[in-house]
Amino acid sequence: MLDYHVHLWPHDLLAEPAELRLDRLRAYCEQANANGVAEIALTEHLFRFKDVEGLLATQYRDEPNGDLRLQMEGYFSHHATEELDHYVEAVLKAKAAGLPVVLGLEVDYYPGKMAEVGELLAGYPFDVLLGSVHWLGAWMFDVLSSAAVEAEWEHRGTEAAWSAYTDAICELAETKSVDVLAHPDVIKVTGRRPGQGQLAECHERIADATAAAGLSAEISSAGWRKPAEEAYPAPSLLEAFARRSVPVTTASDTHGLGNLAERGTDLMALAKGAGYSSLRAFTARAGHDVPLETPVGERSASSVQGT
């Protein structure tokens, strides 16, 4: 079992450097081990790092909706407080100490900027890059309890939102700038879904784009914590991935220790139900398969505790 989507900092908190200490990262590994997870991928959001704030700010600068523009500007400003080098160095130190972690990053889709993002990240020894779509233009559609976000949902409508999201995630896949599509149907986060015909079409398009790009997809427990009340992806999308032999990872999308390795048994059941017998792990951005149920005993106590 893997947890390949782990954040160190909750969204509402600043990027506290203390979370990068070796003893803190060891605590993540110990909790993962106790829950049957053999390896975790630390995948902090790219927008957490002030090194790239100027590059990513183009996402909202031309947004005509003032409320959405100001909301995203404030969001980016709040989050961009750590340095990418510090994060990378801390994870590499944990790996060197024998902790079962891989160095990752969650990279949102920045239309027209993915080549520049790729050039920047190529200078670092990442093991895995997650690709995600959390916003359309400056509309952060998965921010709950926001008047501006809710107004845009009402303005666009569910069908148009799903269509635009599907376009975006397929475009992201086509860039081949990432390795895994994270929470691939996160547009359902609020519980809004289009009719069955459009839903099936969106699922097929996402699965086609993922397979064509040679990417993996994530099975995430995060959707169970949201109004969607369903794992990402939906069973029909997961089955579409399986029909195309798209490899999968499993993930909690935790922000902090609270949800680490959450509902692993349920995630394994989803994967098995779709016909999977292995998960895709990564080293230096090269994928390799591991058994769906990796016995915790295969990791020695010293590898979890560090040396």
Brief write-up:
With 307 residues, this protein is α/β, with parallel strands linked by helices. 41% of the residues lie in helices and 17% in strands.
Can you describe this structure?
The protein has one domain: TIM Barrel. Helices cover 41% and strands 17% of the residues. The protein has twelve helices and ten strands. It has an eight-stranded parallel β-sheet. A two-stranded antiparallel ribbon has the order 9-10. Strand 5, helix 9 (196-213) and strand 6 (216-220) form a beta-alpha-beta unit. Helix 8 (158-175) runs parallel beside helix 9 and helix 9 (196-213) runs parallel beside helix 10.
Write the layout of secondary structure elements.
Elements: E1 2-7, H1 22-34, E2 39-45, H2 53-56, H3 58-61, H4 66-79, H5 84-96, E3 101-108, H6 114-121, E4 128-132, H7 147-156, H8 158-175, E5 180-181, H9 196-213, E6 216-220, H10 235-243, E7 248-251, E8 254-255, H11 264-273, E9 278-283, E10 286-291, H12 301-305
Parallel strand pairs: 1-2, 1-8, 2-3, 3-4, 4-5, 5-6, 6-7
Antiparallel strand pairs: 9-10
Helix pairs in contact: 8-9, 9-10
Quaternary state of the chains: single chain
Main structural class? alpha/beta
Shape label? globular
Q: How many DSSP E strands? A: 10
Largest sheet: 8 strands, parallel
Q: Report the C-alpha radius of gyration, rounded.
A: 18 Å
Number of distinct helices: 12
Distance between the ends:
23 Å
CATH topology: TIM Barrel
Q: Into which percent range does the helicity of residues fall?
A: 40-55%
Number of domains: 1
Low-confidence stretches: 295-307
CATH superfamily: Metal-dependent hydrolases
Percent of residues in beta strands? 15-25%
Mean pLDDT: 91
